[in-house]
Amino acid sequence: MSERSSGALAQAVGPAPEPPPVSEAAASGPAPRPAAPLAPRARLLPALAAVYRAQLSRARVSRIPLLFVATFQSVGIMILMRGVVDGGSEARAVVAGSSVLVVAFVALNLLAQHFGQLRAGGGLDHYATLPVPPASVVLGAAAAYASFTLPGTLVTAVFGCLLFGLPMGGLWILAAVVPLAGAALAGLGAALGLLAPRQELATLAGQLGMSAALLLGVLPPERMPDVIVWARDLLPSTYGVEAFARTFAPHPDWAAVVLDLGVCGAVGVLSLAVATWAYRRAAVR
Amino acid sequence: MAADADSDVVCAVRDLVKTYPAVRGRRGAPALPETRATDGICLDVRRGEIFGLLGPNGAGKSTLVRQLTGLMRPDSGSVTLLGHDLVRHPERAARLLAYLGQESTALDELTVALAAETTGRLRGLDLRAARAERDAVLEELGLTAIAGRPLKKLSGGQRRLACVAAALVGQRPVLVLDEPTTGMDPVARRAVWAAVDRRRARHGATVLLVTHNVIEAETVLDRVAVIDQGRVIACDSPAGLKARVSGEVRLELVWRESAPLDLPEVARLAGDAVVSGRRWVMRLAPDEARAAVAAVTGGPAFAALDDFTLATPSLEDVYLALGGKTKGLVKS
């Protein structure tokens, strides 16, 4: 019985197990001894674009409710702070902090969860057995999560400006703040998700990171003790908050804005590099 | 094993060893001793064949496959795929083979079409080629009608089929498929095997298939390595393996309610039978089996008999005859 059934496949292919040429591999020569040529790698940018597009489509399906949560959370915090803060530099800090908090929620918290899940569920195997540069996977996912936060950040910032009577002329700076703070936080989130030994720890780390961004970013620094201010300086989102807050001033100190954004960008490069390294480490065990 | 066809060997595995360290017990998780998941495995997979790894769950099949696909570094031993040393260069595996793992986490939230297209792009195809291959593969596997639906909204079998589609986009000379047809209906299974055969016929693709399904192993595999507790306990064609236990046949009796043990002919058989509920399974020499059938069907025992089958040995019998210790092979 098995003779016949295993024969059925052989018949479909041909009587003898003669080696047909291995498609493109055969081009190298007739002898099968030399190593077969390798299929081309996926190049960095096209692969990044493919990951970005796939991640963005995921986001459309499942993350939009979470974006609403993130935005409402920030709006709620500003309404609460309205009773405490009257205006001036504190109001600027609250609006900027709440806006960047949306980025922290999505880029840090959700991305840490995503990579934690992917790692725990064996999903990294899928990417690891494709010839794709690790940076494409990490950057593509980070970029998708970060760009996904832009509408929420914008809504929060506009609402904050109306609430506290701040000028809206400088909101264009969000076009730089979101990607740079997004890169820094997304890299941090991805690294946490990939390095956490267990999925629950990845989720926990992401949420702690977001809580830190909330407490240290939204509350005005003038009233904080020194230790907390140092911790605040260590958090990459702080520089995004500071840069954004400065643009509300009547005559913004553009050099300081650029410096803050530069720090954000540098931390972004660093944290994405760490995330890429963490990905490599997680992919081959 | 394949000395005459040495030049035809696509994948050569020598003395592969991987040991998982002992795990300390934690709350809710029992302690595990050190485990040799692959214990000195040697294999030769020849060009153009469907080579199977058959064994129960936990036999070490997936650990072996993870080492063959560059996902895991062995402690010692060598893996040579199409002339490339995969222990030294695990990253080359992705450029030589397509891998279908057991998990679909990375694709679950994508639509069927986007999962196939993205995988093709990450396998190095440009956008146009990825889309053309995506359309062809979805058509081939009968997935066009559900191309726009996310994987996680599909049934288990359809989701698996979508993952197969993703694995087939972007041609590779070697396909490594870890239980590809789990949960699929017969139509989907046929579509998968037809698609695999087409790739063999057209491009001479070699297929390494992990399965714990005996029937599937007998029908689709050219050669099969039987894995038990991290070791290859036999490697041959399914027919060749079964010839080793050709001296035995399997007799299955199913009783209507309970076995009439008061009848002497039934009581005699009870000693040889493996009993599970109303079902008795016996491995007997052919003439013994004939006599047993005559005894239970000719006498008063027949009234208590619901069904009986007399079959030539399956790969499961081979596995047990070779000393396989774990139960858990699937027949469906």
User: Given the C-alpha coordinates, what overall shape of chain B results?
Assistant: globular
Number of strands of chain A: 0
Low-pLDDT parts of chain B are 1-5
Structural class of chain B: alpha/beta
Largest sheet properties of chain A: none
Provide a brief overview of the structure.
The complex is a heterodimer of chains A (285) and B (332). With 285 residues, chain A is an all-alpha fold.
Description:
The complex is a heterodimer of chains A (285) and B (332). With 285 residues, chain A is mainly α. Chain A contains twelve helices and no strands. Chain A has one domain (42-283). The longest helix of chain A is centred in the middle third of the chain and has 33 residues, at 88-120. Chain B is α/β, with parallel strands linked by helices. Chain B folds into two domains: 7-27 and 34-239, 3-Layer(aba) Sandwich (Rossmann fold), CATH 3.40.50.300; 247-311, Alpha-Beta Plaits (2-Layer Sandwich). In chain B, helix 2 (112-122) crosses helix 3 (127-140) and helix 2 packs parallel to helix 4 (156-168). The interface between A and B is large, with 60 and 69 residues.
List its traits.
A: 285 residues; mainly alpha; elongated; disordered N terminus; B: 332 residues; Rossmann fold; Alpha-Beta Plaits; 2 domains; four-stranded antiparallel beta sheet; globular; ABC_transporter_ATP-binding (chain B); ATP binding (chain B); nucleotide-binding (chain B); ABC_transporter-like_ATP-bd (chain B)
